[in-house]
Design a protein that fits this description.
The chain is mainly α and 169 residues long. It contains seven helices and no strands. Helix 5 crosses helix 7. 12% of the residues are buried.
């Protein structure tokens, strides 16, 4: 089902022009490539898919994706990338207005508005954490995520050492 629905899912990705999703797709493809034993076949399939997608994209879509690497010719696409970076910098500055405890859970849009940076929600998880829960909450969150990572790593090691298949787990 997944392989059959993949062309439709890829079309939806291109039509939404989501650059973040495209970057996530590239990361996933890299991870698949890294673990693959059929690298040449995978390269050919990816090249064919990219070529097909590129030929079917309009100029706006092409320019939007090229703006990720600074090769876009359309000033609007490049300005949205620049706007994201300046927006993230502003979000960190808003977070530094109340650095210890933050502005409170769910208040990033309000805090940005009162600082004169618009009402749009944060585009960076770390800036949002700093704005809402401050450095203390940020440290607690990062420690929590590190703890989850360590636990998952232990589970994986136990899984591998017991030679269990996914069905047996």
């Amino acid at each position: 089902f997944y392989l059959l629905s993949m062309p439709v899912l890829m079309l939806a990705l291109v039509l939404t022009m989501s650059r973040g999703s495209m970057i996530a797709l590239m990361v996933i493809l890299y991870m698949i490539f890294k673990e693959s034993t059929h690298k040449l076949m995978l390269i050919l399939m990816i090249a064919l898919a990219l070529g097909t997608a590129w030929v079917n994209m309009n100029d706006v879509q092409k320019d939007r994706y090229l703006s990720l690497v600074g090769a876009g010719s359309n000033e609007k696409s490049q300005s949205t990338v620049d706007g994201r970076f300046s927006g993230m910098a502003n979000e960190f500055l808003v977070g530094l207005e109340r650095p210890i405890f933050g502005h409170g859970m769910g208040t990033s849009a309000e805090a940005k508005y009162h600082a004169g940076h618009g009402r749009q929600a944060a585009h960076n998880l770390y800036a949002q954490l700093l704005m809402e829960i401050g450095l203390i909450g940020f440290i607690i969150f990062i420690r929590y995520m590190a703890s989850n990572y360590r636990q998952l790593k232990k589970i994986k090691e136990r899984f591998v050492s017991n030679n269990l298949s996914e069905e047996q787990l």
